[in-house]
Structures
1.
Amino acid sequence: MNLSFSLAPEALFYIGSLPITNALLWSFLASLFIVTITLAVRFRLKEVPGNLQNVIEILFEGGYDFVKSTIGDEKKAKRAFPLVFTMFIFILTANLSSYLPGMGAFKLLKESGNVSLFRVATSDYALVFVLTMISIITIQFVAIFTHGPFGYIKKFINFSSPLAFALGLMDIVGELAKILSLSFRLFGNMFAGEVLGAVMLALAPFFIPLPFAFLGLITAVIQAFVFSLLTLIFISMASTIEENETLESVSP
């Protein structure tokens, strides 16, 4: 038995100097699948919905109600919902694509050996990092819009007292920690699940891998939900005006 795992995805081919990896390819296909389903429903809307339209409407309504109940404000919910829901659907689709039957059997013959055409997109840290940075940058823009540029800077750099300065430094560390919190959790769980599944399949290819596959399926759904939920919570926190800010704004 010869098992080898790489943190970096394998390059399938190149477009100029741009490597197209197996993880990148499947992220494109996941995106294409989502866009196709969305357009199919969009141009076939009916007053009496069919099965597919029913499922999409349930997902949208349930997702929006959850965002609204979490963030606590309908105006904020309407602004946050598109980003949070899109991330959830994309990550969920990418995660669940690993359970399509026969995907692990497709190989590309290269000089260095056989390269799998399929790799879970979210087991590539580069992709997860990009998703994380989209969330983090959005959170910072929300904070700037809510508190104003000077209020935003004052949160991190405040010389009014030694305690305020120390708390500002802690806030900077907290913002950096959000990057690790979002990216490492999703990447670590999906990569570990991919490795564990491959090991179990190689050791006992019949019945023993089934419980691990079921566990991986649950993890795939939970991680999509957790990433989106944390993004929503961070946006909600960034858009909250604290009591001391309100007092400062009304004070003469």
Note: Helices lie at 22-42, 51-71, 74-96, 125-156, 162-203, 209-238, 243-250.
2.
Amino acid sequence: MYSVRIIICLFLCLLVAGCGDNLLPSDNDKRSTVQAGTVGPAVTQKAPDFSVTDTSGTTVTLASALSGEKGVVLYFTMWCPICDSHMNNMRSEVAPLYPTVGFYLVDYVSGSVADAAGAAAANGYAGGVFTTLADLGQVMLGSYQATMGTTVVIDSAGIIQMNEDYRDGQNLKAVLSALP
């Protein structure tokens, strides 16, 4: 009985020690201040330009994606079940409400345009609402400081309006509804 208490105490000490300075969190935002209008991945910044190939072999740039649209949505996918859930929600619940917004899946894991096309087809996302971009070398992933499930909204002026992990689509809808 005594040894069980010691083990529990040691476990709790290790658990608390692992918290570091998060044991007493503050409400201060420690992210660096973003200069609006500069190029970068944060909200209010100009979106980093890109030039990638979609799964049909067409080169897509930020300017071509924005051409004639109120904005674009970039969703960074690795074709996992969580991504599938997000993309399916976006396809059925969000995209139909915003026909003047371009929706792009950014495949940063497949390694080639052919593999990205195969992954999109195998997962049921070839054609339709989304255009799949093959982010070879993970250039877009780095430029937008993205990861699996990151969703970026860029308005028609090229300004980032949202850069966050996808949740249930409600914030995405709010941001898209506010596009000029």
Note: The chain has six helices and seven strands.
